[in-house]
Amino acid sequence: MLYFGTEDLHQIPPDPSITQGLVRRKLLETGRVVSKRLRMTKRSPFRYFKTSPEIIRLAVMLYVRFPLSLRNVEDLLHERGIEISHETVRFWWNRFGPMFAAEIRRKRVQQMRAYSNWQWHPDEVFVKINGETHYLWRAVDHEGEVLESYVTTRRDRKGALKFLKKTMKRFGPPHVVVTDLLRSCGTAMKFIGNADRQETGRWIYNRAENSHLPFRRRERAMQRFSSMRSLQKFATVHAPVCNHFNQERALYSRESFKLNRAAALAEWRDLGAA
Q: pTM for this one?
């Protein structure tokens, strides 16, 4: 916000056609316009960091995308001539990981809402936190895209209902929901009014089970989680990053895969740009 004092008014040459009140009004209007333009300008999230944004994006990508520990990322960057500590990698991932994931999710949700949601595969994952069993609800679509992740302490109707409502609020209702024989899922579907869209089967549920493998590999590399908050945070960041780099190379030629991989990497390098 710009402020104008009375000394600014004395610097304006006198003009008998206008009054001092009009001059003050014009100055205030000019200050509002300038302050509005400053607010509309997007500030760089890397403005307080001495390290280049390229190195920060690379460290976050290595840690979230691949099953590596903090010290593994430190060693890999050391081979490239970048000297940082593993605690720096931890700070970068906690600071920029959610921001990168939110930007990726926002772009993909806008694209996915333009198409019909054909089939969803919700499922829950058992996760041990300090010896207690927690449940990570995850939903994937018919192409293996991870839609939503939500952590609960119980595998009951309340948790399933909240998870389904959260997913439908972001992506819209699906045409078919493929679930296992868990009663809480069927009860939640009846409460929402989508019981006629539910399907259960033995082999059609493999899409959801296979989608847990990248998360399980990452969980073993992290030596599990310390709290529900850390699990929810990592699951929220890990899913969009996996979706961004998941090219499904078995579905098309090598040339198309290389082009899509290069495009995904170029989009990642533009995350957080001012």
A: 0.76
Bridge-based pairing of strands 146-152 and 132-141 is: antiparallel
Matching CATH number, 119-224, of 3.40.50.1010, 3.40.630.180, 3.30.420.10, 3.40.470.10:
3.30.420.10
Provide the 8-state DSSP code for 225. Answer: B
Helix 53-65, helix 86-112: angle, nearest 10: 80
pLDDT per residue rounded down to tens, the chain (274 residues)? 444 444 444 444 444 444 555 545 654 555 554 444 544 567 888 888 889 999 999 999 999 999 999 999 999 999 999 999 999 999 999 999 999 999 999 888 877 766 667 788 899 999 999 889 999 999 998 888 899 999 999 998 999 999 999 998 888 888 889 888 888 888 888 888 888 888 887 777 788 888 899 899 988 888 888 899 999 999 999 999 999 998 877 778 889 989 999 999 999 999 887 5
